[in-house]
Design brief:
Layout lengths: L4 H5 L12 H6 L13 H13 L4 H14 L1 H10 L1 H8 L3 H7 L1 H4 L6 E4 L6 H5 L9 E5 L16 H14 L6 E7 L5 H4 L14 H18 L4 E4 L4 H11 L5 E3 H21 L8 E4 L3 H16 L4 H6 L1 E5 L2 E2 L9 H4 L11 H8 L3 E4 L9 H10 L4 E4 L11 H7 L5 E4 L6 E3 L2 E3 L2 E2 L6 H11 L6 H14 L2 H5 L10 H18 L24
Parallel strand pairs: 1-3, 2-3, 2-4, 4-5, 6-7, 6-9, 9-10, 10-11, 11-14
Antiparallel strand pairs: 7-8, 12-13
Helix pairs in contact: 4-5, 4-7, 5-10, 10-21, 14-15, 14-22, 15-22, 18-19, 21-24, 22-24
This protein binds 1,4-dihydronicotinamide adenine dinucleotide (NAI).
1,4-dihydronicotinamide adenine dinucleotide binds next to α14, α15 and β7.
Length: 535
């Protein structure tokens, strides 16, 4: 043990607080620095929970947990892992969003690394300041599109911190291997620029080539300093997220969770739904309401999975249709942006979603439009008239934007809909039968995927890994889950699910020659938060 005395108590990765044994206290210069009673980890957990549950607001709970993370990471992860369903909405969406908005007010202690547009030319030097030599997962953001809250500037750092805590809690990736990274390129959020407590650069956002150049320097330096790291893009705005992904996906071990992680969760939901309908993926016809980033990402992954299952690419794309605010996306419309053109098929114009359903008879309807209530009674009844078990996913967040509620989906379809949503809805009881809606939460996918990448030391993350992760997640949904209509497993099983996804992803990396490790030990990579003896 290198550290002793007060320095040891201040190191969150090593500190055990009152759980240092008498022998450790004596050997490590801690005598007199702690109250005499030696506490067990379980007693410490009980103390944290007692304090946590007495906090009056979710933001206070967030502060309590983050402060614990800054003092004692083993205890923090023991608490989080054991209470993930309860605490996920605190350490991640929605409460983390509030914490990002109030970053300048709440700031206590820095975590992770900050690189600003003033640092061009010295990024590698900054990375060398990070004390851990073996970084395996970097989550980076430029803070421009934080959840649904827009530009939060440097306050966006809450997201990489929160996401990495889910990598550790959900998949056991050791916190020492994880690095949150903020690219502070300024902010266009005037309220932040005017806030005297704002902690980021007080300038407008860097854009275009200057932004690209900074990301290039960051990616290149990261690959040199941490050659085994997965570099995840998170909460960049759409107009930077897509080009960055295209530029780096074949040059680095990287992915974008908003685009690819979301797509994998949706595809997994579809695979689970097909276990209920009994029909193969290649026979599905999917209509998306909304034609933005989420729709494009989900459509690309479904198309890829259909191709893997034998359909020619053009035929796969023809099974996927977009409806935007102007109606069905068809060839010949002169108002289409580039990303919609791939799904603009030959078809006469159709002005509404309802008429689209009547014209195309889709088997699945996926809402990613932010158009609250767009799946009305007529739309759901039309889906139910065309399908014995209509697949209806209302993925828009937050709840107030959802295309329909669970109650509407089940109610208007006579209880036949297979329903999932982006935001959680409570179970619905209809004619004595209880339906449990699934929630398409990205946390089902990225921790397990990251675990597989870390264990195999994969060089690249092709879309096929997301399809594999989606198939594995769907297979983890039990018959009992499906019986209740729930198309995702319970979050309480997240570590088991992550191990299955990690194993499948690592095996794929080995099969495809992307792995640096011949026989990845995925389970062995999973850390369990327990105290080690230091003497
Ligand atoms: P975006 O802004 O890129 O796309 C929204 C699309 O909807 C645009 O094409 C827009 O033209 C279209 N649209 C808007 N109003 C419409 C209307 N009345 N009728 C038809 N189309 C309409 O946004 P993005 O990133 O694609 O996200 C969309 C929604 O999906 C958001 O609510 C987001 O929270 C949700 N989402 C859910 C996820 C999950 O459940 N895991 C993950 C990612 C996104």
């Amino acid at each position: 043990m290198k550290l002793r005395g007060p320095a040891l108590l201040r190191d969150p990765l090593l500190n055990k607080g009152t759980a240092f044994t008498e022998a450790e206290r004596e050997a490590l210069g801690l005598e007199g620095l702690l109250p005499p009673h030696v506490t067990t980890l379980e007693e410490q957990v009980a103390r944290v929970l007692d304090n946590y549950r007495r906090k009056p607001t979710n933001l206070e709970r967030y502060i309590h947990l983050i402060s614990l993370q800054d003092r004692n990471e083993t205890l923090f992860y023991r608490v989080l892992t054991g209470h993930l369903e309860e605490m996920m909405p605190i350490v991640y969406t929605p409460t983390v969003g509030e914490a990002c908005q109030q970053f300048g007010k709440l700031f206590r202690r820095a975590r992770g690394l900050y690189v600003s547009s003033e640092d061009r030319g010295k990024v590698a030097r900054i990375f060398a300041n990070w004390p851990e030599p073996d970084v395996r997962v970097v989550v980076m953001t430029d803070g421009e599109r934080i959840l649904g809250l827009g530009d939060q500037g440097v306050g966006g750092m809450g997201i990489p911190v929160g996401k990495l805590s889910l990598y550790t809690a959900g998949a056991g990736i050791h916190p020492r291997l994880c690095l949150p990274l903020m690219l502070d390129v300024g902010t266009d959020n005037q309220a932040l620029l005017d806030d005297p407590l704002y902690l980021g650069l007080r300038q407008r956002r860097l854009r275009g080539a200057a932004h690209d150049d900074l990301v290039t320097e960051v990616m290149t330096a990261a690959q040199t300093v941490w050659p085994r790291a997965l570099l995840q893009f998170e909460d960049f705005a759409n107009n930077t997220a897509f080009p960055l992904l295209e530029r780096w996906r074949d040059r680095a071990c990287t992915f974008n969770d908003d685009i690819q992680g979301t797509a994998a969760v949706a595809l997994a939901g579809l695979y689970s739904a097909l276990r209920l309908t009994g029909r193969p993926l290649v026979e599905q016809r999917v209509v998306f309401l909304g034609a933005g980033a989420a729709a494009t990402g989900i459509a690309a992954l479904i198309a890829g999975a259909m191709v893997d299952e034998g359909l020619p690419p053009a035929e796969a794309r023809r099974r996927l249709w977009f409806v935007d605010s102007q109606g069905l996306v068809v060839k010949g419309r002169d108002d289409l942006e580039g990303h919609k053109l791939r799904y603009a098929h030959e078809h006469p114009p159709v002005p509404t979603l309802l008429e689209t359903i009547r014209a195309l008879s889709p088997t699945a309807l996926i809402g990613v439009s932010t158009a609250a209530g767009a799946f009305d009674r007529a739309v759901i009844e039309a889906m139910a008239a065309k399908n014995e078990r209509p697949i209806i996913f209302a993925l828009s967040n937050p709840t107030s934007k959802s295309e329909c509620t669970a109650e509407q989906a089940y109610g208007f379809s006579g209880g036949r809909a297979i329903f999932a949503s982006g935001s959680p809805f409570p179970p619905v009881t209809l004619n004595g039968r209880t339906h449990v809606p699934g929630q398409g939460n990205n946390a089902y996918i990225f921790p397990g995927l990251g675990l597989g990448v870390v264990a195999s030391q994969a060089r690249r993350i092709p879309d096929r890994m997301f399809a594999e992760a989606a198939r594995t997640l769907a297979a983890q949904t039990s018959a009992a889950d499906l019986e209740m209509g729930r198309i995702y497993p319970s979050l309480s099983r997240i570590r088991e699910v992550s191990l299955a996804i990690g194993s499948a992803v690592a095996a794929l990396a080995v099969r495809e020659g992307l792995a640096a490790v011949a026989a990845p030990d995925v389970a062995g990579q999973m850390w369990t938060p327990e105290y080690e003896s230091y003497i």
